[in-house]
Each structure stands twice: as C-alpha cells, then as structure tokens.
Specification:
Layout: H1 4-7, H2 17-21, H3 43-53, H4 66-72, H5 78-91, H6 98-112, H7 120-131, H8 135-152, H9 158-180, H10 187-204, H11 207-225, E1 229-231, H12 238-246, E2 253-255, H13 272-277, H14 281-294, H15 300-316, H16 327-353, H17 360-373, H18 387-396, H19 400-411, H20 417-436
Helix pairs in contact: 5-7, 6-7, 6-8, 8-9, 8-10, 9-10, 10-11, 12-14, 14-15, 14-16, 15-16, 16-17, 16-18, 17-18, 18-19, 18-20
Length: 451
C-alpha cells in the first residue's frame, strides 16, 4: 500500500468541486435518493458493468413493499432528515456542492451511523457545521459521499465517480497540511479534518494513510482533552478498534462510569462508540483494557489471572435493553450486544490466553456468534456494523461451513474495499492455521485491514 504521500499527485489539479461531487445519474430520483438500473443500455454493456462494478448488495433496497422500506429505514428517521434539509436550505445560503452531502445522508446515513435515529432533525445541521470547519474537512466528506455513490449506485457513471473521488482525495491531502498549520483554525476543526479524511481512507482501503493519519491526530486529541485519559462517553474511541486490529496499545487510556456489572445504570446507547458503531460502550472499554493488559510487563501468571477477570466481566455484564421504534430492530440490537460480547471473549482468548482454535470456550463463542447473527438481516443496519465480530469469529473458526458462513456475512454486509481486505486476511489466516495447526496472528506488518 502506498503512503499518503504516494497517493497524492505532485500538482494540485484544477477541479470544479460542484462538477466532481454533484454528478447525478439521469435515472436518479432526487427526492428520495434512490437509484434505479438504466434500461436503455445494451445487454452487453450491462453485463460488462456487472462483472466489473456490480455491487454485492443494492442500496437502497429496490422494489415496492414494506420489506424493502423496513430494511432501508427501520427507524422511520429519513422523513425527519428530509424535512430538516428543506428547512435548512430555505433559511440559509448554502453552496450548491452541499447537495451532494444531503443526498449522501438521505441515502446512506444508516450505513455510517449505527443509531441514526437519535436526532434526525439535527443531523444535517450538524453535518453542515462540520462541512464549513475547513476546506480539508469539506473535501474529506465529499470523498466519502462520492465513494459511496460509486460503490452502491447501479449507474453507467460508476467509472467516472471512482475517478472523481480520487481527484477529491488528492485535493484533500494537499489541503490538509495547510489547514493544520493555520493558527486561525481550532483544534476541533483540525481533528474534524483528520476524521473526515480518515473516514474515506477506511472505506476506500487506503490503510497506510489511514493508520498514519490516526497517529498524527493523536496529539491533537491530547491537546483538546488536556490529558491522555479519555471519557469514552464524551469522545468516541475509534482508536480502540485500531488497536483491536493491530494488537498494538491504544494511544489513550479510556475510562467510563460503567464499572460494576449487573448494576442498573443510565442508558448510554446514545453516546460514545455505541451510538456510532454499535459496539456496547462497556465492551469497548474492556477491549481497550484487554489490549493494555497484553502489553503490560507482568508475569504470565498475573496476566492470565487478570485475563480471567476480564473474561468474567464480559460474560457477566447485563446490558440495558436497547431502544428502537420497531420490535424487529429491538431484537436485532439485542443480538448485536450479544455478538459483541462473544467477540470480546474471543479477543481475550486471542490476546491474553493465546488459546488454540479447538478450545471449547472459543468454539462456543464462535458458534454463538453464528447462531445469534441469524436474527440479523444481512446487508443493512445493524449488520453493516458487525464485520469486526464476524472477522474475529472467522479467525477462530475451524469448520469449513462456519468459515464460509462468516466470510459470506462480511462480504454480504456492504460493497466497500475494506470488507474485501478483511476477507483476504481471513483467507490467509485459515491457510496458515491449517498448515501450522495453531491460530495465525492477524496483526502482521504491514497491516492488511482495519476495523
């Protein structure tokens, strides 16, 4: 993978942002953002397109009927977002290129924010604030929006869209150093610039740049919070998932007030990691502690003892019942909590106990993840946030049917490059595990995937 210096062009191209970001298929209905397949192309062209670019899943789901509508917007939040766009554009002067972001959130908000229905009436206003913070943040947001269109639209513009998102990314990389050195920009504005560019790099599979920018952003986070300790409920713990993938220590120490399992506490699903990624906040904290324990300089006996304590915490934690408008979504979110529980148990066995894949507790958690995931419909929300759990279970899976099932769940959850990276890494893990008889380390250098 090339570094972010290699990915940028040597000269900043002269680009019309409106032209890059706002290309629309002639058959796209702007009022609901849904794309349909063109029917006037030749069958040969469509076949070639399908082979080269055809998405594994179509989003939004096509076809009339309540099933598709339930899958696209199970929380009935999109109408509120659409109304907020109308109000915002009627009462404020907004540059035309922002319409691309409006389309993006109308179509893909439930693929990028787990609990997307928390404050749908404020989503677009919040997004516009981020859009205006800096030029590099704006370009990063547009990169992601155009990439999603290229990944999911079934349109003859697909090739052009992929070219446009690369142009936008090149501009973002060239603008970022200028914004970082601008004394008039706040620390938060600079962090948002990093975050939006890293979002694109994650989905596009630009791993070298993604991890490099994450390390570069860490001092800004410390400057903002004033220490190396972060309250997980006030600042999302993205670096926890990076450490989960790389098996390296987190850049920060994560804390929360979620310390006693089984206690009835305040519901936190609207804060922190859980609101954005779906991983229960307490599980995120325990994952970070597991990684920290792995790198603590203590005896193996003491490490094992502490690992057992972590495993018991994970096993015994009583989650609050998640809130959702429809019963099917409540059931799915309970399933997500339990899937993450078993993924965390597997991570303790991977990082602390170094358990063999045949270990009975390990295989029990693998089977539970497979069984519980059967109640989560593939391809939509919340399934599109469960790839890390499917990957961890897949790394420990020994039966071919289990491996192929988990492999299929990853590929069936979206069309992003990062998902193919996960599957490629799993294939390599299985090959080495079958040859050596022991679990392969999934965190080899250079890093081949991200969560």
């Amino acid at each position: 993978m090339m570094s972010h210096h290699g990915e940028a062009r040597t000269q900043t191209p002269t680009v019309n942002l409106l032209g890059l970001a706002c290309m629309r298929s002639p058959d796209m209905a702007p009022e609901d953002g849904r794309a349909k397949v063109q029917t006037n192309g030749s069958s040969v062209q469509l076949w070639k397109y399908a082979q080269d670019y055809g998405p594994r899943i179509v989003w939004p789901p096509e076809g009339p009927g309540s099933r598709e509508d339930d899958e696209f917007d199970p929380e009935d939040a999109i109408p509120a977002i659409r109304q907020s766009i109308t109000v915002l554009t009627e009462n404020a002067l907004i540059e035309p290129v922002f319409q691309e972001m409006c389309h993006f959130y109308l179509t893909f908000v439930n693929r990028v924010i787990y609990n997307y229905a928390l404050t749908p009436e404020r989503t677009i206003k919040w997004m516009l604030q981020r859009f205006r913070l800096s030029e590099s943040a704006k370009l990063g947001m547009l990169c992601t929006a155009v990439l999603f269109r290229a990944n999911y639209e079934r349109s003859m513009l697909t090739t052009s869209l992929y070219g446009h998102e690369k142009e936008l990314y090149s501009l973002a990389l060239k603008r970022l150093p200028l914004d970082l050195s601008n004394p008039r920009l706040s620390t938060i504005a600079k962090l948002v610039a990093f975050t939006e560019i890293m979002n694109y790099e994650f989905y596009a599979g630009k791993l070298s740049s993604y991890y490099t920018h994450g390390a570069q952003a860490a001092p800004l986070v410390r400057a903002h919070v004033g220490s190396n300790t972060i309250d997980l409920l006030n600042l999302s713990g993205l670096r926890i998932f990076d450490s989960l993938a790389t098996s390296r220590p987190t850049h920060f120490t994560y804390t929360s007030d979620l310390e006693s399992p089984g206690e009835a506490g305040t519901t936190t699903e609207d804060k922190g990691v859980e609101a954005i990624f779906g991983c229960p906040n307490v599980i995120a904290v325990l994952l970070a502690r597991t990684t920290a324990l792995r790198h603590t300089r203590i005896s193996s006996e003491e490490r094992t003892r502490k690992g057992v304590e972590l495993e018991h915490l994970i096993q015994g934690w009583q989650f609050n019942l998640p809130r959702a408008k429809r019963s099917c979504m409540r059931v799915a979110r309970v399933a997500v909590q339990e899937i993450w529980r078993h993924a965390a148990i597997l991570y303790v066995h991977h990082a602390i106990f170094k358990s063999h894949p045949s270990n009975s507790a390990v295989q029990g958690s693998v089977k539970n993840i497979i069984k519980i995931s059967s109640v989560v419909s593939p391809g939509g929300n919340p399934d599109c946030f469960l790839q890390p759990t499917y990957f961890i279970a897949g790394a420990f899976a020994t039966l071919q049917k289990d491996r192929q099932m988990l492999r299929g769940r990853i590929l069936g959850s979206g069309n992003e490059r990062c998902l193919r990276d996960l599957v490629t890494t799993l294939d390599e893990i299985w090959e080495e595990t079958d040859k050596t008889g022991r679990l392969s380390n999934w965190s080899k250098e250079p890093q081949s995937f991200a969560f």
